[in-house]
Design goal:
It is a single chain. The chain is an all-alpha fold. It contains 21 helices and no strands. α18 packs across α19.
Length: 330
Amino acid sequence: MPKRAMKDLTTDRKLKVSSRVARLVGPDSSLEEQREVAGGQFQLCNSEELLALFLLAHRGAVEVRDLAITTLKGIAPYRLVPLLCDGELHPQVLDFVARQRSDDASVLVLLLDNPGLARQTLLTLASRCTVDVLGYLVDRHAGSGVEGLREAMEANPVADGHWLARFDELSAQAADQSDHGADDWDEEIDEEGLSVYQQIMHMGVAEKIKAALTGDKEWRKLLIRESNKLVCAAVMKNPRVSDGEVLAVANNKSSNEELIRIVTMNREWMKNYAIKQALVVHPRTPPALALRYMNILSERDLKTLSKSRDISQVIANSARRMLNAKSRQR
């Protein structure tokens, strides 16, 4: 993906508000209406809702500001995809999302790919983001000429010498290409007739995350295998992920820690007996959680675990103890 010089966009650009949003959040709106909008209970399209939440969080009645922020934090990432990929969103709205969704790597990557992101928002992200997001930021923005970007990275505790050296290397390469009159266009790829696998091969990280959040089962099946943790984690946030797909992740001993963490954090998925059973023996399930999940296992499954040589000794020994306790209670 070509690098673009970032514009230092400011509040000088006017914030466009539809008449409907203006009425709902303006001075003439009732407190009850503001509460409904801030709580996500009012029927608005995604773009109107995001703008309304932004306005209420900054200018609404005191009683609704925190509610608006809480609602934004709860919006599913897939719903934000078409908005964050839209270069028309006001920089202040993008900054609002960046601050309130600072723990959502997939959202931050989409923001970093948005040409409307303000310089100060980028600097803030560079100084605070996790190492996975930092890796994308370096690849995406090194050499873009954003003043103060390297200094902001230096302030980030996770930005060790490796990332700073890579930033310098990519910046030097970009400067060298500029000196030699590098083309400022990319070869267009005609996606018609390409298989999903072939399309993925031509995608950047941000594009893969968009597809992971919104794609169908064929896309999810391929993207869950990506080595980039940001991409495979985004698959698990797709609203169409089935229990069968989650079970496949839990059964796959190669699934990384982030995927297992996402599974264990979802209450609905954790109601599934087979998923819990698979997590008990997964090598990347935290031991404390694995032992807790063992409490729901049947006696038959405990016997299997007690005799297994393919699991940790801690789990096998715990299975034996649980079986002995059950036999004493009879």
